[in-house]
Amino acid sequence: MHQVTAQSKNMEAFEAWMSEHENYAYRFAFSILMHRQDAQDAVSEAFYKLFKMDILNRLENPKAYLLTTVHRCCFDILRKRKRLVLLGDINHLETMLSQNTQNTMEQSLEIADMLQGLPHDMRTAMVLRYYYDWSYEQITQLLGISTGTLSSRLNRAKQRLKAEARS
Fold first, then answer.
1. Which of 40, 114, 106, 113 is nearest to 77 (CA)?
2. 136, exposed or middle or buried, with CB in 10 Å at 0-12, 13-18, 19+?
């Protein structure tokens, strides 16, 4: 009986934490996969893995660990389905971008189209840095890359976006 009560409290605490971070994780997954169902699958898988491991209360930064897990689940989905990015579902990305910026709808669609054209590694770096406002240190830890590599990705992505905007 005592064990069942402890498990119930752990489940309730995890569900509360999951509800608090689900949208954040989904937006990140969607920015990588550009497909609603795949993003939902990646987030569900990430939460399942975290629940199964039962380590959230021992982590220094559980939110960063969640995004690391979501990132890995996204790559698993991309590998399994052997695709880079679906070109559909642009409406959701436009909505997501317009909620956190003061861009007009037309500008948001242009931004979404341009981000879609970036390679995965550049798009991920741009979304983490400029949409989520993460520090270089947080991004390098999440992606497992050096600061120089991150800086290069961001600079190349900005150059491509500038070139795209001019054309």
1. 40
2. middle
- Tell me the pLDDT tens digit for each residue of 19-55: 999 999 999 998 888 889 999 999 999 999 998 888 8
pTM, two decimals, is 0.60
Here the tokens at position 140 are 């390098």
- Predicted confidence (pLDDT) per residue in 70-112, tens digit: 998 988 887 776 543 333 334 444 455 445 544 455 565 667 7
CA triple 140-112-27, angle to 5 deg: 55
Sequence-separated (6 or more) residues with CB below 8 Å from residue 27? 96, 131
Instruction: Enter the tokens of residue 102.
Output: 């003061």
In the block, which residue shows the tokens 């689900």? 22
Q: Which residue has 């660990």 as its token pair?
A: 65
